[in-house]
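Re: [help] complex structure
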Amino acid sequence: MGMRDLVEDLARRRTRIAELGGPEAVARQREAGKLTVRERLARLFDAGSFVEVGAHATHHSDHPSMAGRQTPADGVVTGFGRADGRLACVIAYDFTVMAGSMGRTGEQKCARIREMALTKRVPLVWLIDSAGARIQEAAGGGWFAASGYLFREEVVLSGVVPLVAAMMGPGAAGTAYIPGLADFVPMVKGTSHMALGGPPLVKAVVGEDVDPEELGGSRVHTEISGVADLEVPDDEACLRVVKDYLSYFPSSNLEAPPHVPGDDPVDRREETLLDVVPESPRRAYDMHRVIERVVDGGRFLELKPAWAKNILVGLARLGGHSVGIVANQPLHLGGALDVNAADKAARFVTLCDAFGIPLVFLQDVPGFLVGSKVEREGIIRHGAKMLYAVAEATVPKLTVIVRKAYGAGYYVMCGRAYEPDLIVAWPTAEISVMGPEGAVNIIFRKQIAGASDPEAERRRLIEEFRRLIDPYVAAGHAHVDDVIDPRETRGVLIRGLELARGKRIERPWKKHGVMPV
Amino acid sequence: MAEEVRAHITGVVFQVIASVGDRVGAGDPIVILESMKMEIPVEAPRAGVVQTLRVSEGQTVQEGDVVALLD
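Output below.
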């Protein structure tokens, strides 16, 4: 055959590959409300930028059930391209080909992409729509005994390049630990599920009857388990948020996060910040209002918004520079920290620290929850994770004490001893080891009991104690750097970031610390 | 079926906001607890009519206790 014939043959092969698992399977994909894998890639990557790797791959199984079967791209489209101008590698499972199951050849392609992402320091995005391991190929120890390297390699990639696992269909067993190890996990509502064992396996092994949505739908993982970061309405929104998330991150831990200049003035004074915190120190308010009024353009990409709602974490920009925001939320549990809030914050702080994204802490924390319930849940262990992550982080750290700064809550929200590059307080700040009520009951127990009117004595002592928690006491000892007008918050933070950009902190050599997980 | 409104935190009932027979919307406070130096509302998980109130002011409730039932 001459070159022209060969090229025609290649074009025919490409056409067949582009037909995915065939018209019926593609129709079923659309009926389920899902885009096809190639439609997804067309939305993820800038036009014409996608380079496919391994398009001609197919299965090589000699299992009788696989005889004569076509598996275009072996059920997973892999390659690299530019998403909003920036390089990213992709592993996109194709549910139309044997339910996107992970075959041996397909996994070899994925390994090739992981190697590209690692050696070229390029973010890796998985689009997961897969039934898990291809049992026809994996059953028995022949191949299985050597497998599992995908997770080990993902761990090697962790903290080197951003890892995003978008759940756009099922992700069971083999494809469930991919999001488990990834940095960012959006889930499409209604069509995506993830579980270590899918419903048929659950039925067979533990006898439970449960549907995929109840077992591992987006509500379960964004509200109850905390495994996923965001619930998104459809495939389009999912791919948009993947790009939005990556826009805050450098391509690898060796680069600085991208600077995105905007037109929001550094010294924008937001008058409404004077009205956010209620007059009564016991009243709740929505900390979102503070964040939105301070960051560039009011844009805050909140992660895990429906789980552990007593703490807010997410990405924003200040003066065009990426920041990770950790803020107590008085609207839920009064902003008190519990096991899930500590986990959520610890993980987010570790994420930002890995990629050089400065942290901004907004404090209004009455403390860690106390009581037998949280002790049994291991609040000491979980709280220690947050303490560990904040203490370990060497990225720029800025702290604003908006209101309450009590006990260990003050510490883990980057109090003065946790190396904040700047720590300032609003005039509403209350800084103390514990609240006046608790402290007075402990310190003056006998004096109160012995008073002619114990209740009046208690109230008098509480009022007296309240004067000690005033921010000018901490500022008077130079333990906070300044007391600021809330309207100055944005300007102060941006200047603090400028100061901290050259931050270098040396730690003693160690293999790694012992993370209190 | 009646919907149980549960406390999400252990605390003392500071104020009972709703009355039996009141129509409430999702997210409306039913009672306010005092806990962790804060007034923390216990909110209606969905819209409905308050059928029963199980707590009174000054009473201690544990996390998970039912404070009210909605129709």
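Chain A has a mean pLDDT of 94.
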